[in-house]
Every structure is written in structure tokens, then in C-alpha cells.
Design brief:
The complex is a heterodimer.
Chain A: H1 3-9, H2 11-34, H3 40-44, H4 47-80, H5 86-98, H6 101-112, H7 119-126, H8 134-159, H9 162-170, H10 175-204, H11 207-212, H12 223-233, H13 235-255, H14 257-262
Chain B: E1 7-15, E2 18-26, E3 31-35, H1 42-50, E4 57-62, E5 65-69, E6 74-75, E7 83-86, H2 98-108, H3 113-126, H4 130-133, H5 147-159, E8 165-169, H6 177-193, E9 197-202, H7 205-211, E10 214-219, E11 222-228, H8 229-234, H9 239-245, E12 248-255, E13 258-261, E14 267-269, E15 281-286, E16 292-294, E17 304-316, E18 319-325, E19 330-334, H10 336-341, E20 349-354, E21 359-363
Parallel strand pairs in B: 3-9, 3-10, 7-8, 8-9
Antiparallel strand pairs in B: 1-2, 1-4, 4-5, 5-6, 10-11, 12-13, 12-15, 13-14, 15-21, 16-20, 17-18, 17-20, 18-19
Helix pairs in contact in B: 2-3, 2-5
The chains are: A mainly alpha, B alpha+beta.
């Protein structure tokens, strides 16, 4: 259907769709219009902004790395191994996707705070606590980012031609060689997409981080937390930081466009 | 037959609700064709021998070494079995160059990259693809290959590791007719040179007749008949086997669009010129159903007609197989009504004709 037939034959559909587009476009436009372009460098140069930028870079990259380290074996098990309770495990992994992040933060507190199920033992044994530390922020971000990596990579593993792995095995390749020379190259696009998605999700994480790790400048105050806090005291800094996050999101979408925007 | 030299398999495999039972032996240098309709479990048997599908009962040994024993709980992993598997649609590694596809098995078994590539180049040369593999600066990728070329690469990828057991899963069925004929000839030459055991799976009797020494026919998950190509085609035991391989095999020599038959002075006219040099041995296949019988010398366009005597009439599930003796032996399949009509009895004279288009001939 061409756009002119759409307007002629389905005017209501066209109108509602246009509202939806405006709903997304207007706030983003507002952000651009209200952005203090001239004072952008000095706003981003403030101590709070620099701390938040640096911290977010460190924590989101760490969370993405952890997602790969633990998520790749998990995705492989979910895609390749038939074990009892597999769908249960998959449901558990996917839960953080729909769980409100604040609830995730509360759950992490229950497990890893100084009084938590595991956290109390950790503190007794090593005198080590996760809450209110950068490690805690990384943990909260990994909690919400990992599912994105796992579902993307599991889908990649399931859609690849498994027979290439079988042929490789008959040619004498041990499981590790099969994975390195056949599986990894085949799922490379999913691997990249999963990592970028997990990283972007970790970068934007707010609820679980603020609940579990708190809001300490330089230690746990990541970009989204800084945006929220600065909105009261220094709105120009908040908008400047928001712009940074928006640009990153745009870059991610453009980078993954072949995956999402074309295949429908 | 000694089980220590080649492959001896006796196995039960379950796939979903289908239970497949098979037992067979293949000597070194021998080619066994597992012939059967689609869904009969042929591919599953190959997968079991490669270690990709566990067997629930039985034992598989190659050269006296037990690869799998369901009762004794022996299971040799696929990568330690020394098998070569050629699937129907090649399944090349898309991320590797053609050269590295062929060298993959050698690399996996410990050869250096340069060694593996040198050997792979030699194998590609044998299938006429060496020039392609070295074309230009960029390495040739599987994407650049035609179907026939891909299948050749899949074949030499399996052969390059010098396996004890070569498993061919419908290796020609994904190809178009002309490529299939050419590749069948090449495959035959490779199989003659191959010293291990070969199991070929096919639903096309021509593949089995042209490539195999022995045939095992699988129906509904079990082997219904096994024997040499000549035995099975001459004495099919079930209607399916009769339909599939109960064909007339005539040996002869190429002479353009004609086959000079070995056992008689007769010549068999073909529809097209043979692409086999004159005087070279040729195998001609005529389906019994394509043979028509007449009481008098037929006045038809069929150039192939001869006078025979009925040697025997076998009833087989609604058809009659008339075995004819004459300038050479021929089997015709006719309806019981036709037998009445032509008043066929053992010993009665009859004319048989075959259209040139109904004769399939290929290099032997």
C-alpha cells in the first residue's frame, strides 16, 4: 500500500500511527531544543559529570564483559544441552527483562547486602561488602544486562546450521576446536549484537543500581543516576548528560540496524 | 566374511517413533549402497556410524576396533572415529576458504596450516578445482562455488583425512541432471581409488547401480534384501525392490548413440549421444516396465525390438515379471491382463521393444 492510498482508505490508522511517531519524536526534539549547546563543554567538564562519565564507562564495560564470560556458556547450554528444567532456567534468566529494575535491586540486597543470604557469609569470611561499591554497581548492571546477551546469543546458536558442527566433529575436531573454528564464526553477528545490547542496557541502568549500590559520587553514581540528581540542582548538566546517553543510543541503533531495521 | 578387516555393523537406532534395525558388513575397498525410500532411516544409519546418533542396541566395528557397543557401553566420540561424511548438500564451512575447508580435517588432526593447505591443494587438483582455489588475491569462498563444485569440495574434504569409513549421504541428489551424471563418473573414480569402506545412501537406483558393489534395500526401518548389484536386480524379493532395482542391466561398449551389447551381436539405440569414448565399457539400464511385448514384430518407432522366448512368468503383487530369453536376457513387467491378451506361456515366442528414450546408459 502506498502512502497516498493509506491516507485515502485508512485515515484513522494513519492518524493514530502519526500520533505514535510524534509521541516518540517530540520529547527527543525537546531534549535537542533545550540543550545548552554553547555551555555543553563546560557542563560536561564539571567534576560530577566527569566522574559519572568515567564511572559509567568502567561499570558498563565491566558488566558487558561479565555478560560475555558467563552468558556465552549459559546460552550454549540452553541452546545445545537437553537437561531437566531447561525451560525453568531460561525463564529465570529472562525474568530480569520484565522485572522492574528496582525490584531487582531489592532482590540483590536480599542476597548480597551485609545482612543478605550470601552477602553476610562473604562479609564474615572476607570482610568484603558489595553494597555501596563500584563492584556492586557492576553487579546490578550485569543483573539487568545479562538476559539481553543470553537471548541474543542463544537465538544465534539455534539458528546456525548445526550440521557444520557435526561435520567438523567427523573431520576430527574436538569440541573446543569445533567451537572455536565453526560455532564462534557462525554466531559472531549475534555475539556482537548481544554484547552491544548488554552494554547499552548496563549503561542506562538506574533502578537496580540506585537500590543496591546507592548513589555515591565517583563510586556508584553512574550517568543515569547523575542525570536524575543534577536535574534538581543543575538542570543544564542533567540535559548535557542526557544528550550523551541519547547519542550513544542512536549509535547503537545505527550499528545494529542490519539486525533490526531491515529484517522484519 | 571376516569382520576384522572392514566395517561390521549391527544396530538398532530410535528416531522418534521409528525404530531402525540394520546389520551389514563392508570390506575394505568395497562400496555398499543403502537404498530405500525417503524416510526409511538411511540417513540415521549413517549418522549412527559417524557417532552423531547413539545406537540403542548392537555394535559397530571398523577393522576389528569397536567404535560403539550399546551393551558394553563403548562409545567412541565422532572426532575419534576416522570417518568421512559427505552430506547431501555439502555443508561447507561458510567462514573458511575452499582450501581451508578441505584442510580442516588435517588441521584438526594436528597438521600445520601449511601442511594442511598443501595436501588440500592436491585434493582440489584431483577434482579440477585447484585453479579456482588460487584465483586472484582473494581466497575462494564456498559462496563462490556452484552446486557441483561445492559437492566436489565436500567429497575431497572427507577424503583428505584418509578415513577408514566413507559415508555418502545422497551425495548427488541435490544436483541438476547433467551435473549429477558428470559427478557420478568422478565419484566412481574416487571410490575405486579409495581403500577404506564406503557406505552410500541413496533413493536413486542409478547411483547404487553405478557406484556400489553391493546393495542393501531398506524399507520401513529394516533391510529387506541384500546382495550384489546383479543379484538384487535379477531377483528382487519385494515389490518395492522390484520397482526400484529390479531393472535390466546390460553390459556393452560405447558406440556413439548406440551401445554394442557384450553378450550378443545386438546393439541398443539411445536417444542421445553418449559422452563416453567409443569402445569404453558402458552399463545400460532398462526398467522392466519400459519393455513392451507384442505377438508380432512391432511396427512402432521403437528401434530396439527383438524376438524372445518366455523363460518364466513370476507373479509379483499385481504385476507379472516376464523373464525373456533371446539374443540376451530381458525382464519385462506387464499386467496380468496383457499376459492373457498376448497368450503368454512359458516357452511361447514374443517380440519385445524398448524406446530409445527409455534406455539409461552410463560409463561403467
Amino acid at each position: 500500500m502506498t502512502s497516498s492510498t493509506l491516507l485515502r482508505r485508512r485515515p484513522l490508522t494513519a492518524l493514530l500511527a502519526a500520533f505514535a511517531v510524534a509521541f516518540f519524536a517530540i520529547p527527543l526534539l525537546a531534549l535537542l531544543v533545550r540543550a545548552p549547546w554553547s555551555s555543553l563543554p563546560e557542563n560536561l567538564g564539571t567534576a560530577e559529570a566527569r566522574d559519572a562519565l568515567r564511572l559509567s564507562l568502567v561499570t558498563s564495560c565491566s558488566a558487558a564483559a561479565l555478560s560475555v564470560v558467563f552468558g556465552l556458556p549459559l546460552a550454549w547450554c540452553l541452546a545445545r544441552v537437553e537437561f531437566p528444567g531447561r525451560s525453568l532456567v531460561r525463564g529465570l534468566v529472562l525474568l530480569p527483562l520484565v522485572l522492574p529494575p528496582v525490584v531487582g535491586g531489592v532482590a540483590l540486597l536480599g542476597a548480597f547486602s551485609r545482612q543478605g543470604l550470601v552477602g553476610a557469609r562473604l562479609y564474615d569470611l572476607f570482610g568484603f561488602q558489595l553494597t555501596f561499591t563500584t563492584a556492586g554497581a557492576v553487579m546490578a548492571e550485569t543483573f539487568v544486562a545479562l538476559p539481553f546477551f543470553v537471548i541474543t546469543v542463544e537465538a544465534g546458536l539455534r539458528s546456525m546450521d548445526r550440521r557444520t558442527e557435526e561435520i567438523a566433529a567427523t573431520l576430527g575436531a574436538d569440541p573446543r576446536t569445533v567451537f572455536r573454528r565453526v560455532t564462534l564464526p557462525a554466531i559472531a553477528p549475534s555475539l556482537v549484537a548481544g554484547t552491544v545490547l548488554a552494554w547499552a542496557r548496563a549503561l542506562g541502568e538506574f533502578g537496580a543500581t540506585v537500590t543496591f549500590a546507592g548513589n555515591i559520587v565517583g563510586r556508584t553514581q553512574t550517568l543515569p543516576l547523575a542525570v536524575y540528581l543534577q536535574l534538581e540542582s543543575n538542570p543544564e548538566v542533567a540535559v548535557a548528560l542526557s544528550l550523551v546517553l541519547m547519542v550513544v543510543s542512536l549509535v547503537v541503533i545505527v550499528a545494529l540496524r542490519d539486525r533490526w531495521l531491515v529484517s522484519s | 566374511m571376516s569382520a576384522t578387516e572392514g566395517l561390521a555393523a549391527r544396530l538398532v537406532v530410535e528416531v522418534g517413533t521409528l525404530e531402525i534395525r540394520a546389520g551389514f558388513e563392508v570390506q575394505r575397498g568395497e562400496v555398499l549402497a543403502l537404498l530405500g525410500p525417503n524416510g526409511a532411516g538411511k540417513t540415521t544409519i549413517l549418522r549412527a556410524m559417524a557417532g552423531l546418533q547413539p545406537i540403542t542396541e548392537g555394535e559397530i566395528t571398523v577393522g576389528g576396533v569397536v567404535l560403539e557397543d550399546a551393551e558394553g557401553e563403548v562409545f567412541v566420540e565422532p572426532d575419534r572415529r576416522r570417518v568421512g561424511l559427505v552430506p547431501q548438500d555439502h555443508v561447507l564451512f561458510p567462514n573458511l576458504s575452499v582450501l581451508d575447508n578441505v584442510g580442516f580435517g588435517l588441521r584438526s588432526r594436528g597438521s600445520s596450516t601449511s601442511e594442511a593447505r598443501a595436501v588440500a591443494r592436491g585434493w582440489l587438483e584431483r577434482v579440477g578445482l585447484a585453479g579456482l582455489a588460487d584465483k586472484g588475491q582473494r581466497e575462494l569462498s564456498p559462496r563462490d562455488l556452484s552446486g557441483g563444485q561445492s559437492q566436489r569440495v565436500a567429497l575431497v574434504r572427507a577424503l583428505a583425512t584418509e578415513p577408514d569409513l566413507l559415508l555418502l549421504d545422497e551425495p548427488l541428489s541435490a544436483l541438476d541432471v547433467s551435473t549429477r551424471a558428470a559427478l557420478r563418473r568422478e565419484l566412481r573414480a574416487h571410490l575405486e581409488a579409495f581403500r577404506g569402506c564406503t557406505v552410500l545412501v541413496s533413493h536413486d537406483p542409478i547411483d547404487a547401480l553405478a557406484l556400489a558393489d553391493r546393495i542393501a534395500v531398506i524399507e520401513d526401518g529394516s533391510i529387506t534384501q541384500e546382495g550384489t548389484v546383479g543379484e538384487v536386480s535379477a531377483r528382487p524379493r519385494t515389490p518395492y525392490v522390484a520397482d526400484l532395482v529390479g531393472v535390466n542391466l546390460l553390459h556393452g561398449r560405447s558406440a556413439g548413440a548406440v551401445v554394442d551389447l557384450d553378450d550378443s551381436r545386438e546393439a541398443l539405440a539411445l536417444a542421445d549421444e553418449l559422452d563416453v569414448a567409443a569402445g569404453e565399457p558402458v552399463l545400460a539400464v532398462i526398467r522392466p516396465r519400459s519393455v513392451s511385448l507384442h505377438r508380432q514384430r512391432p511396427d512402432t518407432s521403437a528401434r530396439n525390438s527383438w524376438e524372445f522366448t518366455v523363460a518364466a512368468l513370476d507373479m509379483l503383487a499385481g504385476h507379472v515379471r516376464a523373464r525373456l530369453a533371446g539374443p540376451f536376457d530381458l525382464v519385462a513387467e506387464v499386467t496380468p491382463a496383457a499376459v492373457e491378451d498376448l497368450q503368454l506361456r512359458e516357452g511361447s515366442p514374443v517380440w519385445a521393444s524398448v524406446k530409445a528414450t527409455e534406455v539409461t546408459a552410463f560409463a561403467e
